[in-house]
Amino acid sequence: MIQAIKNFFIALRQIAVGNKKYYLWVSFLSFLALLGASAYIGQLSRGLIITAMRDQVSWGMYISNFTFLVGVAAAAVLLVIPAYLYNFKPIKEIVLFGELLAITAITMCILFIIVDMGQPLRVWHILPVVGAMNFPASLLAWDVVVLNGYLIINSVIAFYVLYRLSIGKEYKMSVIGPLIILSIPWAVSIHTVTAFLYNGLSSRPFWNASILAPRFLASAFCSGPAIMLILFQIIRKLSVVEIDNKAIFKIAELIAYAMGINLFLLGAEIFKEFYSGSIHSAPIQYLYLGLHGHDKLVPWMWFATTMNISAFFLFLFPKTRENFTTLNMACLFVITGVYIEKGMGLVIPGFVPDTLGEIYEYTPTTQEILVTIGIWASGALLYTFLLKLAIPVYTGKLRFFSKTQLTAARDIMTKLVATIRAETPLDEVVKLMLSKRLTDMAVVDDSDKLIGIVSERDIISLEVGQASGKTAADLMAAPTGTVPESFHIQELGKVLASRTANLLFVVNENGQPVGTIEGSDILKSLEDIRRE
Amino acid sequence: MKKLTLTGKRLCYFFFLLLLSSPAISIEHEIHRKFLVPPPPFSEGIFPCSQCHQGMPVNRTPRKLEMMHQDIVLNHMPGGWCFDCHNPDNRDTLRLANGKIVKFEESYNLCGQCHGTILREWKAGLHGKRTGMWNGEKQYLLCVHCHWPHDPAFKAITPMPPPVRPADIK
Amino acid sequence: MEEDGRRSGGIDRRAFLQGAALGLATLALPLGRADASFWESFFQKHFREMNDDEIKQVIDRLEKEYAQKFGKQIEIGADKPIPGVLYGYGLDLSRCIGCRRCVYGCVEENNQSLDPQIHWITVLRFKKGEKWVDLENSEKYYNPEKVPEEEYFYMPVQCQQCENPPCVRACPTQATWKDPDGIVVIDYNWCIGCRYCMAACPYGARRFNWGSPKRPVEKINPKTHYLGNRPRYRGVVEKCTFCIQRTRKDPGRYPACVEACPVGARKFGNLLDPNSEIRYAIEHKRVFRLKEDLNTYPKFYYFFAYGK
User: Fold this and answer.
1) Which of A250, A287, C156, C231 is the most buried (most CB within 10 A)?
2) Chain A, chain C: beta-carbon pairs less than 8 Å apart
3) Order of strands across the sheet with A420-421?
């Protein structure tokens, strides 16, 4: 365990290593994050009054971003299902990057909640046991449970897989299988619970529509994967990770279906509100047409709707979704479209008009926007670091070995002092064996490659006098007991155990014998390692 | 405002003094509950009315007042006259239609002659304003505290300023 | 039963918190925020999980803090609900003239911030003969020379003290709850300022301290209640408590808004007392409650005493 933690910190050093572009990118993000932090310090010292939120519109940009990001996090499930349940290989190879994205998105969600709190120091009041979590009555308490649970599940899966990879082993499905199965309904739950958080409020007719949770999920399954598609292309370009086009096109196809459903649900909502035209249609009127001359969100909403519809068609036709220019366009359209529709487009109309009929048009302040940018930059930084940690492990560049794995044949072998050739007379072989105290001799060809072995026992088995006139070629056996120089102790042990002879020949990469290893050599070095 | 929040005890005492100093000869007791009220809202220096009216002959003819009380323009009970309510024989009291005499402090009985349902609701605490203790001694306002009896319609007042708009809260 | 559970849970938690407090305190010492009061306030327990002694300690500390901050003695009560009392409020819409005396009477009594301005009562103005139940046609910022105006009527809205309060359900930390006398209260030292209750309230009754509440010292009403009008903090939610510091006493004064109303449109009393003014109103007048379709069961009754 301690070794694993040490290894983690060694791997963490990867973060500090990179080319000029990498440092530029990290500095850029750090700058933005610091900018956000300084705006947040301003908010801490003066209060949320520096935002444009007021009693009438009591949630704004922070909660909008939170809602959007919950969707991004939930979308990892769109990779998990084909990867693990259907064993679709191209996606199975990249599911890890989706899980890392989920971890990042949830972390950002938590940050957005923290900056929205009036008393962030009291955050522990929300915890069970130490605090006074209002569970199960409060949907916000549910959200705390499911979001943190999702963060833990994804962290465990991702870090376990990376750990196994880093020590050169396959991950065991018996260990994470149940977690992976659990993560699927859990991903659905984080988004459902977040939708219910709004949905359950009878005071806000705009949110109090049963279609809200399905809409949340549908739009999440567009925006999250769209972000992943763009990230995959960047990862593919900047690292040696190979991502199959098949995976990308499959995800693009899934986005098309999700967007289709999303647009259908939105249409159903719009129909119901406008056709029935009750007083509860005021918020949607505010969104799409403007209400009593207040129409700040109207252009944004039409822009978002246009983006979403165009993206739907780009994703729908194989021709456009398999062309990277149009595919990337579609991804950007979906991301902006859903960001508007499910961010401010969802949160603000819950408050406009407010419960007493007042219309306050909320426009975020500069500080609010800076804090938001800061959190996005921190998220990007976190994802960059996670990738920096994961990619070398993932591609096999970074491996951690135990001492037994690090002690190779070349380290413990007895160097070869003499070789013989096929035409060497046996008399001479016997002389060599006696003078050098050898029990077995390697037979090499003109290029010094091992072609056979002559052993003491083979010679002894000859009757007296029969040896004269014979050469090594007459007695040599095929070279089966050979191992490469790089084999580590454990592997050597395995090979030795499978053989009757107690001696192994070590050959280099050219097939030339370089040394021998006896059982006692292995035993000795194992003992040395143990004593250390 | 301060007067309204006097403690019950002080009010009782005050009421008791009023009772003692009152020259009324018969006091109407048709209601059993006593209602604690602040002093009637007389114009300054006008009470007791007997200061001036003592010994003045009673002129029962309805006419335009020219010597005193010119400010009173009766906008209540068309065709009414002072003695429909005021007691001509003792100006410090009021007189009901049935001839019973009531003090100014119990003028609600006079108003109740016509506004019976309102009197009932006033007694129940529904009409009019009560201050004091919600579960203890309460202080009632008389009808005349809000309704100037010669012109009883409630007069418009200046509202307090509207709240600051959210956009102006900085 | 539940009470016992809470208590024992409280002890475990206290032990845990003390350990955690020590740990954190040592961590934070170099940061220079190690004064005892800060940590005591940081680790203060939930109001309902404190026993009388602990409440007293907290109140002593708060009174000291307030004295330091305002240079003025502020008395914090913690009167418990009176058994057999369920507070109810009545508002006669046929009489309200929209003068906002109640709004400012409330502010004077309950120590709301003057800047940024916080009002617990909102008076809405509606045009006679036009629809008004959706409240969307209401005007909150009307400012004529004189009220009442011929063509309008008025409706004040404040916390409705729902029997089934959506805000209490929403609060993730149980910082707001309904006491047995029906008053929905907030522990300003437990509220985390997430404002979910504000989203949940159908009556726009909850107010947030967006900035640091400001009020001249001489205007601070020193007679306060822990769950009522004591000075608040930045970043917490507040609202009408039916003047808990006045009404939760025997005998207790009428709420400030009742006393401020120049037309006696506001009625207050015990819903369990058949002789109370509020019961008279409910039994003799046709009362309605705001947004009854939401099943919040407010204890704030609107009625029309006259057909005006």
Assistant:
1) A287
2) 159
3) A420-421, A440-444, A450-455
- Shortest CA gap A363–chain B (Å): 10
Each residue's pLDDT tens digit, A409-466:
888 888 888 888 888 888 888 888 888 888 888 899 888 888 888 888 888 877 766 7
- Nearest of C211, C206, C218 to residue C233 by alpha carbon: C211
Question: Are residues A384 and A435 located together in one domain of the fold?
Answer: no
Report, as an integer, the average pLDDT of C95-105: 97
What is the count of structural domains for chain C?
Answer: 2
Mark yes or no for CB contact C103/B158 under 8 Å.
no
Q: Does C299 touch chain B (CB under 8 A)?
A: no
Closest alpha carbon within chain C to B123: C277
Please indicate if any CB of chain C lies within 8 Å of the CB of A357.
yes
Name residues whose C-beta falls within 8 Å of residue A48's C-beta, 6 or more positions apart in sequence.
A116, A118, C193, C208, C210, C211, C235
A356 reaches B (C-beta below 8 A): no
- The residue assigned the tokens 């009591």 is A58
Shortest Cα distance, chain A CAs vs residue C94, angstroms = 20
Cα–Cα distance, C95 to C154 (Å, whole number): 9
Residues C290, C265 within the same domain: yes
Chains sharing 3 or more CB pairs under 8 A with chain B: A, C
Same-domain pairing of C10 and C87 = no
Query: Containing domain of residue A170, as a range?
Result: 2-395
CA proximity to C40, closest of C72, C68, C14: C14
A56 touches chain B (CB under 8 A): yes
Together in a domain, A461 and A391 = no
Helix (H, G, I), strand (E, B) or coil at A185: helix
pLDDT band with cut points at 50, 70 and 90 for residue A485: confident
Q: Please tell me the distance in Å from B161's CA to the nearest CA on chain A.
A: 18
The string of pLDDT tens digits covering residues A75-90 is 888 888 888 888 888 8
How confident is the model at residue A464, as a pLDDT? Answer: 67
Out of B130, B156, B159, name the one closest to residue C100 (CB). B159
Choosing from A367, A395, A423, the residue where a domain stops is: A395
Chain B segment 147-166 residues within 8 A of A by beta carbon are: 165-166
Residues in chain A within 8 Å Cβ distance of C120: none
d(CA C277, CA B114): 23
* A357 and B CB contact within 8 Å: no
Is A449 in the same domain as A385? Answer: no
Which residue among A395, A420, A438 closes a domain?
A395
What ipTM does the predicted assembly reach? 0.89
Are B15 and B105 a contacting pair, CB within 8 Å? yes
Domain residue limits at C210: 74-308
Query: Within this chain, do residues A473 and A516 fall inside the same structural domain, yes or no?
Result: yes
